[in-house]
Batch of 2 targets.
Target 1
Amino acid sequence: MNKRKLLTSLVAGLLLAGIFFLLGRPEKYDVLVVGAGAAGLFAALEAEAEGASVLVIEKMPTIGGNTIRATGGMNAAESEVQEKLGISDSLESHLEDTLQAGHRTNNPVLAEILVEQAKEAVSRLRALGADLEDVGYLAGHSAPRTHRPTGGAPVGTEIVRVLEEALKERGIPIRLETRITGLIRKGDGVKGALVRDKTGREYRILSSALVLATGGYGGSPRTFVRYNPALAGFNTTNHPGATGDYIPLAEDIGARMVDMDQIQAHPTVEPDHGILITEALRGNGGILVDLMGRRFTDELAFRDILSARILERRNGTAYLVFDDRVRRSLSAAENYIQRNLVKSADTPEELAGKLGIDPPLFSGELENYNRIHHSGLDDPYGRSGLSIPLDTPPYYGIKVSPGVHYCMGGLAIDDHTRVLRDSDGKAIPGLYAAGEATGGIHGNNRLGGNSLADAVIFGRIAGREAARK
Ligand SMILES: Cc1cc2nc3c(=O)[nH]c(=O)nc-3n(C[C@H](O)[C@H](O)[C@H](O)COP(=O)(O)OP(=O)(O)OC[C@H]3O[C@@H](n4cnc5c(N)ncnc54)[C@H](O)[C@@H]3O)c2cc1C
């Protein structure tokens, strides 16, 4: 090539590059992950491990979504930690508890994957450096199988901490304050997304596969009431970004959504601040009394049953009561004390006075409860889990009522996490989903501790499958 020709093609090349620049030439990745909770962060890690180029976008200024709020723990049966602690459990019993909680409306294939892969999910998190060495008991479980950090510390911050470190180490970028606003189509499939940054600039990102891990819609009263009008006026435990952003995308592309009206109310939410009081506090011995000071239920009943029982009481409210032994068994309790959600007193009568309930009735109730449990008699409400006498002062009480907590419904996926088309149930090419943005796994009532396992397990599958596309 002579000098003149070389110069001409150089100028042409530069001109073309300039035109692409002005038109906003799209970025390209093998896998685009939308949402930086447990599902999205794990999807990114797995996709990168498969050799894919990956970008994570997150609409909020910080990562973690609802995952970072999780307190109680993550379920797994037959895990290495259970074995170390001498806890006997089985996959069959975890599956049975999951199906029973969901009134057997769960997608059985997805529920089986959840249970079978949970111990591997715990191992993977531990290998990343997560402390999941404490195993506790949550409502509706036949065995202690809820894994959390030593001393019963909140689990969500621990999971997000190790995932953030792992992504940093692998050089996987997370672009904050960047939201998905549309899907880019290719034939009947997806080949990327339209996104908007915090300045309002819209641009395209092309990808061979896209993973929707945007979480649920429990943070948007307008959306949860649209699907379940009975929840009008309910508090929520969710982060403000849980607004169901996948819904308009699904409607646009014709994706199937299942169980959208199935929204779990967590029975114990502190009503004045919308703060979830972990089930682990009941699992470790706490009891519930009504506004008179009377017990009225098995505190470890399934969440839907317990929420309904609290709503039947006066003001739809109850008090969660525990003693210092329970407080010391669960470091998550300190958080509630620091946030001034807890009233405390040296005697049951004094506590009753502070809570505004009947002192003689409450102290008689507690005395009776302790007598039954000291003497090993059957609990009159059939309390199904740990029952210990509450006789170690000081005594504590927190006001609780049910609040919107978890969306069982969401995008229909298959066992490869491919999003299904509504018209024919076939997979939409290039589109994957994981975590609370999906539906069916938990049926119409989720067992506590199963959603972190869900987000981790299906996030990992989504990352691998998306990378192999
Ligand atoms: C207070 C609380 C306590 C809980 N405790 C437990 C527990 O102990 N055990 C348990 O198993 N489960 C628990 N859960 C449920 C569990 O934490 C969640 O279901 C799970 O973490 C969901 O993970 P995810 O990755 O699917 O979604 P999330 O963690 O919610 O992440 C989704 C992310 O997507 C982002 N996003 C949303 N829309 C867009 C968009 N348009 N563009 C870009 N990004 C977007 C969100 O901002 C968010 O960061 C709890 C939930 C709450 C609220």
Target 2
Amino acid sequence: MKAIILKEVGEPQNLVLADVPLPTIAANEVLVQVKAISVNPVDAYVRRNKAYLDAVYQTQGNEEHIILGWDVSGIVTELGASVTKFKIGDQVFGNFKFIGQANAYAEFIAAPENELVLKPDNVTFEAAAGATMAAMTAWVSLVNHGKIKKGDKVIIHGASGGVGHYGVQFAKHFGAYVVGVASGDNRDFVLGIGANEFIDYKSQRFEELVTDADIVHDSVWSDDDKHIERSLKALKPGGTLLSLIVYPETEFVERALSEKNVKVLRVNVTPNPTYEHDMEYVARLLSSGEVKTHISHVFPLEEMYKAHTIVQTKNTVGKIIVVP
Ligand SMILES: NC(=O)c1ccc[n+]([C@@H]2O[C@H](COP(=O)([O-])OP(=O)(O)OC[C@H]3O[C@@H](n4cnc5c(N)ncnc54)[C@H](OP(=O)(O)O)[C@@H]3O)[C@@H](O)[C@H]2O)c1
């Protein structure tokens, strides 16, 4: 089968097309013919940084090839001996073996049955592939940790990006009042997916405009390491600060609690004990049309390097999809 292998840690051009053996499946796994792959910022971090690669891909040192990627949609073509959830021909999607070796940049993948869910018939493979790691991150942050509810005022940083554009739509689904933050070029996009207000981080300071948020979802990889301090200022007493990038220091967490009764929670997309339930919920939202994947680029498999060149800018609008 065709796959994209990482020749060596470095530039996007190190991702090259190769012929590799089909993966073998364990008893609890299915073989999936991949129809669409989604690319995330973490893919670019591990591609260019050996320490990240070792930590996230969990390199053993004896791999014949390094094949990145953790997000797919596709069709089940073979069942492991103990698989009960799927049958051959089922259309599925999911974020699997993260962290670990999912080897998703390929024509076929081997995935555990409990890390995939059925793709609704009326949702395209591309839209489903997008709604995996990015959608789950927004869900884990806002729903599982943030306990978002009707009437909450929520600031979503990075509202035009992969995680943020799902976050805006999930927050609206739960009846929240959403303040989306991105650069001015993406104002219409963010308001168009349902945000009630827009803040341009390049010309405005969000913490001067909002000081009564119930939840701030902070996914900003910023040179300004005080970004979570600013997010704390935007919260009302009793609010929740969800930090996706920074691991907040104990002193910061304790101060937020004692001065403002604000909970500060670090968000990681995995482990997520309610993953299957959450993905099935997302599948229903995609099927009903209440949540949509905005796809800004689709590339053929051999042009994976183009997807990486864009995703590493950290200015992606919605999702980038690659099709084998
Ligand atoms: N903790 C976890 O488990 C986890 C999981 C997944 C992702 N992440 C991280 O979360 C971040 C977002 O992921 P993603 O997939 O959404 O990335 P993405 O698709 O590249 O989107 C990044 C977004 O951030 C916006 N942005 C950049 N600087 C900003 C600022 N100062 N204030 C507000 N928004 C700003 C960009 O808007 P403009 O283009 O308009 O500038 C863009 O919308 C990444 O750093 C990713 O690594 C963490």
